[in-house]
Design a protein that fits this description.
Number of domains: 2
Protein name: Phosphopentomutase
Bound molecules: 1-O-phosphono-alpha-D-ribofuranose, manganese (II) ion
Keywords: Cytoplasm, Isomerase, Manganese, Metal-binding
Structural class: alpha/beta
CATH topology of the largest domain: Alkaline Phosphatase, subunit A
Number of strands: 14
CATH class of the largest domain: Alpha Beta
Strand content: 15-25%
Pathway: Carbohydrate degradation; 2-deoxy-D-ribose 1-phosphate degradation; D-glyceraldehyde 3-phosphate and acetaldehyde from 2-deoxy-alpha-D-ribose 1-phosphate: step 1/2
Shape: globular
CATH architecture of the largest domain: 3-Layer(aba) Sandwich
CATH superfamily of the largest domain: Alkaline Phosphatase, subunit A
Cofactor: Mn(2+)
Strand order of the largest sheet: 10-9-11-1-12-13-2-14
Order of helices and strands: EHHHEHHEHEEHEEEHEHEHEHHHEEEH
Largest sheet: 8 strands, mixed
Number of helices: 14
Distance between the termini: 6 Å
Helix content: 25-40%
Organism: Brevibacillus choshinensis
Length: 390
């Protein structure tokens, strides 16, 4: 079957069990969905269950459906990374074979001093940290001194946190543009600079949705570029335009949270276009996975599940809805970082008489290859289309 519109939802970090190479990432035993299902009292996902989520892997309280409504499977990541950028780029056909640079011991002193000179402020932190813990630790000092908080993680990120009343947003964004310029150099390369504004008082800080990401451009054209080149629509909702650095995007819509992401996707279902509408739901990852909060994560999943009927009802003939993820972030795993996992794959359209098991896809790029195949645009260098299985 061929589709005129494809709606793609990435549930950020909703992994479905360790990949064979998880030990290389110190992620043996990670299982984001599985562990949440075990830990959270009253956990249920009735609508995702009907689609076939429980047919992909055994999940407590999410049994396999006898007649799943969607084609189902899971996908393996072949790129050497477990961050958002790597996962999304692979979905759209890129194999990230050289891992992005990370800074487990903080950024080099030479980079920090050049950065301090350029921004006219000093740096606090400069280490691996959870973004909320570091506010507890250094937020007050930042407020007193006006020095910026710089931190990183297991990902290739240079994050700058500042209180909105201490450093106005425009200045924080300008500071991040300077960081972006410096970290485009090979010797200091990072994938993303992230502005992390926050508000509140010591002991009670909260981060705002004025977060802004400054990503490097994908190293080759992705399937989204091929769609755009063919004159098709490629709508980016939420973080998508940041993740692909605005490449291959014909329209970009910002969101404030997961439910807004679902609303915006529903909004695009009412538009008439041919091509892709692609949303990333980041709260799973940012608000619950990194915070190691299985309860909150489980509730966010149930909240998303409750929106599935609306999504299915808004689909028209010739539409395909795909639900997947970009990596894991098991909230009961050690540390506060992502986990190396399979991602679920659910593909729904009207008129499925008998759902197919799409199996274990060898790379996330099978999805990009399928999208390219569907719209008859240039196929990515990696990935096998499963269009004929839909
Ligand atoms: O702990 P917080 O600030 O949420 O940061 C997390 O978010 C970053 C970007 O998604 C990740 O690299 C991780 O560091
Ligand atoms: Mn992610
Ligand atoms: Mn993350």
């Amino acid at each position: 079957m061929r589709f005129s519109r494809i709606f793609l939802i990435v549930m950020d970090s909703v992994g479905i069990g360790e990949l064979p190479d998880a030990p290389k990432f110190r992620d043996e035993g990670a299982h984001t969905l599985g562990h949440i299902a075990e830990r959270v009292e009253g956990f249920k996902l009735p609508h995702l269950e009907k689609l076939g989520l429980g047919n992909i892997a055994p999940l407590k309280n999410v049994p396999a459906a006898s007649a799943p409504l969607a084609h189902y499977g899971k996908m393996q990541e072949i790129s050497m990374g477990k961050d958002t950028t790597t996962g999304h780029w692979e979905i759209m056909g890129l194999h990230v074979s050289t891992p992005f640079n990370t800074y487990p011991d903080g950024f080099p002193a030479s980079l920090i001093s050049e950065f301090e000179q350029r921004i006219g402020r000093k740096v606090l932190g400069n280490k691996v940290a959870s973004g909320t813990d570091i506010l507890d630790e250094l937020g007050e000092e930042h407020m007193k001194t006006g020095n910026v908080i710089v931190y990183t993680s297991a990902d290739s990120v240079f994050q700058v946190a500042a209180h909105e009343d201490v450093i106005p947003l425009e200045e924080l964004y300008r500071i991040c543009e300077i960081a972006r310029e410096l970290t485009l150099r090979d010797e200091y390369a990072v994938t993303r600079v992230i502005a992390r504004p926050f508000v509140g008082e010591p002991g009670n800080f909260s981060r705002t949705s004025n977060r802004h990401d400054y990503s490097v451009k994908p190293f080759s054209p992705t399937v989204m570029n091929h769609l755009q080149d063919a004159g098709l629509t490629s709508i980016a909702i939420g973080k998508i335009s940041d993740i692909y650095a605005e490449e291959g995007i014909t329209k970009s819509i910002r969101t404030k949270d997961n439910m807004d992401g679902v609303d915006q996707l529903l909004g695009t279902m009412k538009e008439s276009f041919k091509g892709l509408s692609f949303v990333n739901l980041v709260d799973f990852d940012a608000k619950f996975g990194h915070r190691r909060d299985p309860q909150g994560y489980g509730e966010a999943l149930m909240e998303f599940d409750s929106r599935i009927p609306e999504l299915l009802a808004a689909l028209q003939d010739g539409d395909l809805l795909v639900i997947t993820a970009d990596h894991g972030n098991d909230p009961v795993h050690h540390g506060t970082d992502h986990t190396r996992e399979y991602v679920p794959l659910l593909a729904y359209h009207k008129g499925i008489a008998q759902a197919h098991n799409l199996g274990i896809r060898e790379t996330f790029a099978d999805l990009g290859a399928t999208i390219a195949d569907n719209f008859e645009v240039k196929a990515p260098a990696i990935g096998k289309s499963f269009l004929s299985g839909l």
